[in-house]
C-alpha cells in the first residue's frame, strides 16, 4: 500500500502494520427489497401509536405506573429508596422529559400543550433529594431543549412564549449548584432541591454522574449569560480527566472530597462512566471547543487499546492502572457505545459491537441489564425499556443506510409491543426469562427509546438533513447553539490547529468477494452478509435461524477475528537495539515546524501511535512530550536510518515485542532517494 497517495509529503504520519484478513463463511446476497417506503412508514406509525399509548396514559406524576394504571412520584415514606427518589423529584418528570419528543414526532399541538402544562404545573421548590446527574439530564435538558424549539423561529415557535422554560431551567440550575461546593469541584451525587446540602451526605460519586454535566450546564450558561454553570461543569469534567491513570483511563467511583478513586479501580464504557466520554465528544460538536475533542481522542485511544477485546467485539471491564481484564461482564448501558463511535467516525468498530448486542437482543427479546461474556449467560435479567441499543441502531442506519438496521428496529418494536404494551401504557420488563413485568414506565422509554425508534423509520425527518451542530444529550434531548452562543477560537489557537485534518471515512458497504481477495463481484451484501456475522452470533451462543442460513454456507470456514492493538507506545531506535528514552529531547533532535515536527535523530524518542479509522495503518499522536494533531506531518531527517535500511538486522526484528515500522520516504533532503521505503525498528 502506498502511503504517499493520501498524505503526499508525509514521512511518518503513517505507520503500517500488516492487517490480517479475515476470511469466513462465504457470504450470500440478501433480500432487502422488502423495505419499501410504505413499509417504513407503516412501522413508523406503529411506533408513533405506541408512544401516544404510553403518553396518553401518563398523568402529571413523575412516572406512569402502567400495571396499576396510576402514577408515582418520590417515595416520601422511605427517603432511602434511591431507586425511586434518585429520579422522581415531584416535578412531573416524564412530562418535562418528553417535551422535544413532540418535535421529533412533528406534533405541534402536543408540544404547545406540554409546554403550557410544564409552565403551570412544575415547580422546583420541592422537598426532595434527586440525583444531580439524573435531574440534569432528564429535567434541565428537557427544559432547555423545549426552550430552544419554543423560542427559535420554525414550526415549533410559540408566539406567546416568553422564555418561561429557560427561567425554570435557571431556577433549577441554581438549586443544583451548591452540590459543586467541594474541595475538588466534583459535585456531590444528590441534593435537596429546597434545602440544599444536608449533613452526612455520601461523598462518593461516579465518573458519569460528576463528569457529564457540561452539555446542559454550559448550554444553560450560554443561553442565560450566567457563567457559573459552565464553569462548575467544566471544572468537574477536568477534575475527573486530570485524575486519569498513566494509561489514560478514568475510574468508576471517586470521592468528591479527596479526589481519590474508590477501589476496585475498575473501568469500562458502561454504567458509571459511559456519558463522560459521550459528553467529551458531544460538547466539542455542539460548542467547537477543541479541548474536549482532545480529551475524546485520547480517551478513545485508551479505551480501544485496553477495554476492547482481542476479537474487536466486546469491551471489557479493566483495571484502570494496568489495563488488565477485571470482569467479563457487559451491561445494557454500554450498547450506546456504537452510536458514539459512529459520531466519532469509527463505523467499523461500531458495527461489530452493535452486532454483538443485536444477537443478545435476539436471544433475550430485550437486552439483559448484565451479561457474562465468558459464561455466555445473563446475570441480571431486567430490561426497563432502555434506549441505548436502539439509539445506536439509529446512528448506524444513518451512517450506513443498510436496511439490516431497519430489520433490527422492526424486531425491537415487535418485542416491545408484545412484551411491554399493557392497557395503561408500557411496562418495563423485570425478568426477561419469565416475561415478568414491572409496574413502572421509566421516563426514558418515551423520551429516548421510542424517539430513536421513530427516527429510524422516519427517513424524511428534518433532523436527517440538518447539518448544524445539534446533538442529542445522553437523555435524548436535542440541543443546538447558534453562532451568537459560540466562542471564537483565539487567533493563536486557530493558527495552531489550522492544519488539522480529522478523518471521518465514508462507509463502504461490505461486498461479496466470492472467495477471492478483491472486491470484484460488486454485489453489496450488507451487514448480515459480513464474514464475522456468524462469529458474533457465536459470542452469545445463539443458533442460526432460517434467515441467517441464507447468509452462510456449510462449506465455508470460520476464524476467530483478531484486531490489531489500537495504539502503541514505544521508544524509537534507528537499528532495532534498545535505546533508553530521551526524556527531554533537545530542539536539535526533535523540533516543531509550521506543519508538524522534524525528527533529526530518532534515538530515544518516545512515540505514541493510534490506529486510523480508515483501516490504513496508524497515525503518530505523540512524540516526546509533544502532541501530534491529526493532519500534522512528522518529517524524519536522520541519516542513520537510511544506513540501517540498507542492512536490516534480522536479530533485531526477532527481538521480543519489537515493532517494525515502515515509513514512506519522500524527498525532503537530497540525501534521501525519492520513494524508497526505509525500515527501522523500535
Ligand atoms: C424478498 O422480500 C419480499 C418482501 O418481504 C418478498 O415478497 C420476496 O419474495 C423476497 N424475495 C426473495 C427472493 O426471497
Ligand atoms: C407533589 O406535586 C403535586 C403536584 O403534581 C402536588 O399536588 C403535591 O402537593 C406535591 N407534594 C409535595 C409533598 O410537595
Ligand atoms: C397497545 O395496547 C393498546 C391497549 O391494550 C392497544 O390499543 C394498542 O393497539 C397496542 N399497540 C400495539 C402497537 O400493540
Ligand atoms: C475495490 O473497489 C474500489 C472502488 O470501487 C476500488 O477503488 C478499489 O481499487 C478496489 N480494490 C481492489 C483490490 O480491486
Ligand atoms: C542521536 O542521539 C544519540 C543520543 O541520544 C547519539 O548517541 C547519536 O550519535 C545521535 N545520532 C546522530 C546521527 O547524531
Ligand atoms: C537534514 O539533515 C541535514 C544534515 O544532518 C541538515 O543539513 C538539514 O538542514 C536537515 N534538514 C531539515 C529540513 O531539517
TrEMBL record:
EC top class named in words: hydrolase
Domain of life of the organism encoding this protein: Eukaryota
Reported cofactor(s): Ca(2+)
Enzyme Commission number: 3.2.1.-
Binding site for Ca(2+): 474
Primary site of residence: endoplasmic reticulum
Residues in the signal sequence: 1-27
Protein name: alpha-1,2-Mannosidase
Biological source species: Lentinula edodes
Upper classification of the organism: Eukaryota, Fungi, Dikarya, Basidiomycota, Agaricomycotina
